[in-house]
Design brief:
6-stranded mixed β-sheet; alpha+beta; about 500 residues; 15 helices; globular
């Protein structure tokens, strides 16, 4: 996931009626839902139908369905990342037992409810007001008069099991798209509800393209000044590059969903998140086609890599320093390889990140492990800045120690051999520190950069690799040294340097 504003920031978010009548209606509804779902309720942790009942003023989605196991505790997420207060969006919750009898239900906290007996049937509404920060609309469910993103992770209750059997109905005349395949009964089967994203709009437009063994689907809402094929061409190059470098292909359809960021803003303002095999992207569209495509190429270099890390690795825990910080560096390298930026822009970006890192005030007090744990509460950029700089140093050390036979990419290939999605989850921090140590047996690289608060000093380290660090007051410049040894020149050439 990435919160973004510009390129430099990226490279351094029922009517009242008698109870008897309600009981009859519940029985009729749930019997109908059972038969419509093709007798699959028993094999699903949760069966739900989402219906948009209003998309003007205060948008609402009605959700109704069954949970075969039954539960007295019904909990809805109250926060996601920096967005809080999600539990207050839940309205008109009605819980019923297996016979359709409504149960007494009480609220015990924001988004937390208790039923008098195990409830198997439910209906409620979710109020989707526009977030205070428009950029948050890519991270939680949102809906307006033009388009909407429905994300199962914050719409469905937190119940045992991850599997869901779900259908989605938008407003009249709207279209719905998702990376999942619709079955013959009008439902989608998801093995993990947290990956479920549905894109709705009046005028969805789509472009499909093969991406190796996968299919790339690009869907937009609203008018944009570029041809959809221009975006799928960029995205296809990025996906192909990562597939070659990682030696692994994410499963299923890969989907990019693009909608305009609210307000009159240009391409420099954007926000994105990658869930499962879907990339959710909001971007200001007050710009030329060239500017928009240039920004998209940079943003997608980062977000597309999340299809691999963390989404295709069986790692768990708070290892944000790696799947955000190291991903920023990998995206930067991809942008150089594909010609989106040149080698000096690569160095300029690293210099800006180094300036940001030095300004955090946490150089000697917080480890990357601790910074990852409190990423959403501290407001610090340490996870991104130090993580990215550490990836840069690690890549240099790997290339130097192996005479350019190995790079940082080889660590990722090792990870996908050992921990591909579907295998038993392991602690991410333990697995990553071990993988990094296996790759480079070099005294210059120390786990203390991650586990401790050892600071990064580019002025002291980079000259050995053929770089100059120029401190010009509030700015720092990175340049290639005027005089290079043959090994330094070979390493810089492997990074994309051309004199």
């Amino acid at each position: 996931m990435a919160y973004g504003t510009n390129v430099s920031t990226l490279f351094r978010y029922f009517p009242k009626c008698r109870r008897e009548r309600r009981t009859i209606l519940h029985v009729v509804f749930f019997l109908a839902l059972f038969f419509l779902s093709g007798f699959q309720v028993q094999g699903q942790s949760l069966t739900a139908h989402l219906t948009v009942v209003s998309q003007n003023d205060v948008a609402r989605v009605r959700i109704e369905g069954t949970f075969a196991g039954g539960s007295t505790t019904w909990s809805f997420p109250n926060s996601y990342g920096r967005v809080i207060g999600l539990g207050a969006r839940i309205k008109n919750l009605v819980l019923s037992d297996e016979f359709g009898a409504q149960l007494a239900t009480r609220s015990v906290g924001p988004g937390e409810y208790k039923a008098e007996r195990p409830a198997t049937h439910f209906t409620y509404e979710v109020e989707l007001r526009q977030p205070f920060n428009p950029a948050d609309a890519s991270h939680v469910s949102t809906l307006n008069s033009e388009y909407g993103y429905l994300m199962l992770a914050d719409l469905l209750p937190s119940l045992p099991g991850k599997e869901v059997h779900v259908s989605v109905t938008g407003p009249w005349g709207w279209s719905v798209r998702t990376s999942f395949v619709l079955d013959g009964d009008g439902f989608y089967d998801l093995s993990d509800r947290s990956t479920g994203v549905f894109f709705l709009a009046r005028d969805l437009r789509e472009k499909r393209q093969e991406a190796g063994p996968a299919e790339l689907l690009f869907v937009t809402a609203g008018e944009w000044p570029f041809a959809p094929g221009a975006v799928t061409k960029i995205a296809g190059k990025i996906v192909a590059d990562y597939r070659r470098r990682m030696g692994y292909q994410p499963k299923g359809r890969l989907m990019l969903m693009l909608a305009p960021l609210p307000g009159t803003v240009g391409a420099e303002r954007w926000s994105a998140e990658t869930r499962g095999s879907s990339i959710v992207l909001l971007m200001g569209r007050q710009a030329t086609a060239k500017s928009l495509l240039g920004q998209l190429s940079v943003v997608l270099s980062h977000e597309a890599f999340h299809l691999w890390v963390p989404n295709s690795l069986a790692l768990e825990g708070d290892y944000d320093w790696f799947f955000e910080g190291f991903t920023l560096y990998q995206a930067l390298r991809c942008a150089v390889r594909l010609g989106f930026i040149d080698f000096q822009e690569y160095l300029d970006t690293l210099a800006r990140v180094y300036v940001s890192y030095r300004a955090t005030g946490e150089l000697d007090g917080v480890s990357l492990l601790e910074a990852s744990r409190r990423r959403w509460t501290s407001g610090s950029s340490l996870v991104y800045d130090k993580g990215m700089l550490l990836a840069f140093l690690y890549d240099l050390q790997t290339r130097k120690a192996s005479a350019n036979r190995l790079t940082i990419d080889d660590v990722y290939q090792d990870l996908f051999r050992r921990f591909p999605t579907g295998s038993a989850p392991v602690d991410g921090n333990v697995a990553l520190i071990s993988a990094l140590a296996r790759q480079v047996k070099n005294e210059q690289f120390s786990p203390d950069y991650i586990q401790g608060a050892v600071s990064i000093n580019l002025e002291a380290v980079l000259p050995d690799y053929g770089f100059r660090v120029i401190n010009a007051g509030n700015k720092i410049h990175l340049q290639v040294a005027e005089s290079l040894t043959s090994s330094q020149r070979a390493m810089l050439t492997s990074l994309g340097y051309r004199k």
